[in-house]
Design a protein that fits this description.
Elements (H helix, E strand, L loop, with lengths): L9 H15 L28 E6 L14 H10 L4 E3 L6 E3 L2 E6 L5 E6 L13 H13 L8 H4 L2 E8 L2 E6 L16 H4 L22 E7 L3 E6 L12 E6 L3 H10 L4 E2 L4 H7 L5 E6 L5 E5 L21 H9 L3 H8 L4 E3 L25 H10 L19 E7 L3 H15 L4 E7 L3 H5 L5 E4 L8 H5 L23 H11 L4 H18 L2 E7 L1 E6 L3 E3 L17 H5 L1 E2 L14 H4 L32
Parallel strand pairs: 1-10, 15-16, 15-17
Antiparallel strand pairs: 2-3, 4-5, 5-7, 6-7, 8-9, 9-10, 11-19, 12-19, 13-17, 13-18, 14-18, 20-21
Helix pairs in contact: 8-10, 14-15
Main location: other
GO molecular function: peptide transmembrane transporter activity
Family: Belongs to the bacterial solute-binding protein 5 family.
Length: about 625
Amino acid sequence: MVGKTLPHTPHLRRLRLFLASAAAAGALVVGSVLPLGPLFPAPQARADDGRRVLTVAVSQSIDSLSPFLAQRLTSTSIHRLAYEYLTNYDPKDAHPVPGFATSWQPSADKLTWTYTIRADSTWSDGRPATAEDAAWTFNKMMTDPDAAVANGSFTANFAKVTAPDPRTLIIELKKPQATMVALDVPIVPKHVWEKVGDFSTFNNDKTFPIVGNGPFVITDYKVDQYVKLKPNKGFWRGAPKFDELVFKYYKDGDAAVAALQKGEVSFAPNLTPAQAAALGSVENIKVNDAPGRRFHALAVNPGARAKDGTAFGNGAVALRDPAVRRALFQAVDREAVVDKVFQGHAVEGQGYIPPRFAPYFWQPSAGQKVGYDPTAAARTLDRAGYGTDGAGRRVGKDGKPLGFRILCHATDPNDKAIGKYLQEWWGKLGIGLKIECLDNVSDPWQAGDYDLAFDGWSVNPDPDYVLSIHTCDSLPATPKDSGSTDNFICDKRYDALYARQTAEYDPAKRAELVKQIQSRLYDTGYMNVMAYPNAVEAYRTDHIKSITTMPEAAGNLWGQDGYWSWWSAVPADRETSGGPGGSGGSAATGVLIGAGVVVVAAAAAGVLVLRRRRTTAEDRE
């Protein structure tokens, strides 16, 4: 089970020292409620008809409103709001809690799982939501490859799924599967989706409102403009407090921050250090800076290929040489990335799983770690036969100067800044680097037309999904098909470890296997995790009175493993009693910004605490 304790890195020790000193000075009282704005806040942002609207600025396009196709973080975050999963994650510590299922029970051999489906879930069109809907969703993914694009790894091991009655779902497995209480698959209404013909092209974005059973209902969508949602008044846990939720698209992060300052939006994620510092002293704005659930990495194209063995794309052949990948790894100063690019709002990258997920967090041993050592990088290339010409340029095995291209998200200033450092670091080795910053990197990435790319994923409390995208099974069936692969890695040793961890129910043994997987991924050099960025975000306290973070201590608001933030948000002009939502035990109470130990902005000096596809800077899920 995933825990909540973070490793004692120097970065986090500084946080604890700050909290202790702030508490001693009276700036922070643990368990107290800190004011979230002036005594007489500005009027709540409302629509012309008086409705209270919560507007969230986003910088990532929607890849699809179909839960069967969507992989980008913004899309999957919206699907968490519109559809129930069998289980959810408690906002306090991410342990599994009831969702569409109220309970679950494995057989003695753990090959048959029986879920009790709640009786009080209703589709937004008034039809009852039943076990039949869940069985149909899973069976569709099992029988139609086009319905398994986004989440097929969860059902690949399913042998049979049935619904003997409306309240009972039975899943029979081919072999043990450790993710049975972490199936992050949106359940869709059978009576709507059984009418769909081609799942590969149906984006679920033409008929509104979209039928769902989550806390919100999607009511409207305009490409690269907005997604609008309204509260689902019949949601079993209780309806959200705002009258409307809008995800508004901003291509430029500065424009989103300006909109936040003017009160045109209520919340803005993914702030740069400069933006966070500027907003820290602005009236009615609260900055939240917390350890994140994502990583920022360099991904290497190992040679794009399909399951049928067909090679495609134009990735550099030299990157298939482990020596070249290692040399590039040795010439990346991850400490500089954290200090100079993220300006301390991150932790140095090591393994694939961020330190927030302590049981799975892995660090290389002293002898295994590839540290920043340009001299060693040059020796690695020399020994592998990549010498220099008269102009000091590295020469490949084909006799041509060695140079690479790197895909960069045009809207991500971190990509651009790191790219300049890479040009400097690798340039000293005699290797050229062309930075290709595009609004849409998805097309060349899927076509294999790249050498390296800036990569990033959100990691769930159960890491199975982000591990699955590097297996051979995730490759596209043919070059024309869409696979779930991240960057075409196919390594038999990796696959063997992945299969073992999937079938391991013992938490400690499984965690050890997950660490071995990360070790193998690290040693291959296909992924260089440079940093684990903090979740740096801000919201207007004259719009939002309180909102749930995840996890309880120093948690994020954007891109949660659940719907807690937007479901729990209370308008600034609304009087409430008790917790942010309805029933549901600890999962309903959550944590409020301003209550407990979540500190988001420091004193007058402006010092701040701690300083899903690929079309923008945001990670995927």
